[in-house]
Every structure is written in structure tokens, then in C-alpha cells.
């Protein structure tokens, strides 16, 4: 089995970095899922794909823009019309999902080693993310489980709200270290800890 | 300027890529009428007012959109998916392509 290596490398510096007031407002971490899989439905086959995702992952996805679920260390959300990201802490989801999705329903692409998952949690998580992305991070506009696709300059990011004060971000592996470093800098104002 | 993506909701202009005038109709590829091709490639109406345009939500869901925008005020009166509109005879030939006019 291939041992995944974090692309954060030397930029990963665990510890507590409180702000001038001695507060740590956010916690940053890398969730390191074993499987990150993109599933895309042909037009008109969205419901069949949602059913297949539900059958394999046990996650009941609602049909609607950006709808998603997060439970039991698994996550799924829509990020574009007919396209979904399905995440599992265990490896092998790409193969099981590909076996469950018929060719006439859609396609399954295993992105496990192509994306890096970064978690930001804490009372000031919305504040920090709002520095990066021009979208509404309030709980009413961006409910728990929902996903959004957006970009910070040229770094494309998929964001899922996985708790009232917690977000999981998926960025391209090749941009992960730059994005992580920028996220740490942006968090200095509110204080942060890395674990 | 903001564009309200039908999937993602209102997003900043920086997330979108302009893909050209949506008023043009590609001539029959078999046509050798130089005037028709010249008009297709070079002629633009340049209206002072509402203008149909193709945009792509490149920094978001990557959908191709048909946007009606005022060239005077930047007011956007409608946004929809390109594939929801009735394709013109010329566009429907380009099967699988929703990339707009391909300008």
C-alpha cells in the first residue's frame, strides 16, 4: 500500500500560536482522508448517482445546489451541477463507488492523492475564511453539511461546512503548501493552533 | 460587478471568465460564403444597452452561463445555464460543446 505523504512538508509546524491578546481563535489541521472521490452524473442521471453514493457511503444526499452531509468521518456534497465530492477516512472508496456507478449514470474519479484536506475550526473560523473567499460564510447562508466551490486568487477550493464552527477545505495538492502558509498568516490576527 | 450563478449564487466577477458575444450564429461549416464567415468572425452589434453574453463560472462550478447584461450600467437582467436555452441550429451541431461561441 502506498503511504500518502503530506504535501505540507516543512510548512507543517504543530503548536500554539496565540495572538497578542493570548487568544487562539481557530484550530488548523490536516484531516488526511484515505479517499477523496469525485462523482459526476450525465445530465438527467443525477438522482441515480445520488442513490449510488448513498448505497456505497451510507450518506443520504439531498438533491439541491451545494447540499451535503458529514457524519461518521465521511462526507459528501455537491459542488457543481451533477457533480459531487465524496470523502471517506478509509481508503478504497474510489473503487467501491466506481463499481456501483453504471457507465450510463456517470463517472467516478479518484482524487485521493490529488487533493489536500485542511480543516479550520473555532469561533473565528468564519472570520478567517472571509479574508480569503468572497462568499457568505454565515450559518444561515452556508448551513452545516453544505459545500461551495470557489477560488482564492488562482487556487481553486472546495469548502464544506462540517460543523457550526468548522470547515473542511479541499485544495489541489500542488497548491496545498502555499495555501496552508497563507491560511496560517491570515489566522495570526485571531491566534491559531496547529494539531 | 457580481453575477448570480444559477448553481452557486451571487459571486464576484473575478470568479468568471468572459466567453464572448452570444448573439452570433455560426454559419454552416460547409458554407464557403466569405461574406457570411467575415460577418461571423468580425461583425459585432456593440449595443448601448442589453447584450447577450457567454460567461463561464471558471472559479466556481465551471458552468457555462448565458448572461444578459446592460453595457451602459452593467446591470444584469438574466443569468441561465447555456444548456437550458434552445440551441441554435448551428450550435446544436457541435455536440457536447457548451462552450458558447468559442470566440
Automatic annotation (TrEMBL), chain A:
Signal peptide: none annotated. SUPFAM superfamilies: Folate-binding domain. Gene3D superfamilies: Heterotetrameric sarcosine oxidase, Probable tRNA modification gtpase trme, domain 1. It comes from Nitratireductor mangrovi. Residues 74-192 form the GCVT N-terminal domain. GO terms for biological process: sarcosine catabolic process. Transmembrane segments: none annotated. GO terms for molecular function: sarcosine oxidase activity. This is Sarcosine oxidase subunit gamma family protein. The gene is soxG.
UniProtKB/TrEMBL annotation, chain B:
This is Sarcosine oxidase subunit delta family protein. Residues 82-103 are annotated as: Disordered. GO terms for molecular function: sarcosine oxidase activity. GO terms for biological process: tetrahydrofolate metabolic process. Pfam families: SoxD.
